[in-house]
Amino acid sequence: MPIILIVLILFAGGTGVSIVADNSLPGDALYGVKVGVNENVRLALAISEESRGTLSGKLADRRLAEAEQLIAESRLNAELALKIKTNFKKHADKIVKISSDLEAKNKLESVGEVNSEFEARLRAHERVLAEFRVTDPELQGEVSALLELVRNNISTANSASIGVEAKLVAAGGPEIESAAKGKLKATESKIKEVESFIAKSKAKSKPETTLDAEARLQVAKNTLEAGKVKLNAAQYGEAFQYFQKSIRVASEAQALLSAKIGLEDKDRPDNNSKEPNASGTLRVNSSDKGVDVSGEADIGI
Question: What is the CA radius of gyration of the chain?
Answer without folding.
Answer: 20
